[in-house]
Amino acid sequence: MRRTALHRRPLLARPRATAEAGLGTTVLGVLGLVVLPIAAVGLILSGGGLGWIIVGGLAALAVLVAYLDPFGR
Is the pLDDT of residue 7 over 70? Predict the structure, then answer.
């Protein structure tokens, strides 16, 4: 009887699934790091385009989200 009791798991000690299967925030950060210099060069060459400012801001936000990693544990 004692031998079977050792092989049973308690109810709360179940194996848990991983929280995140993909690398979404890492890919987002790498894309942000690629797009940010492109937006900066586009802003310099165009002489002040609002679109390049918006793209640069979104790229910086993507890098920040990847750095903070809200989905990681």
Answer: no
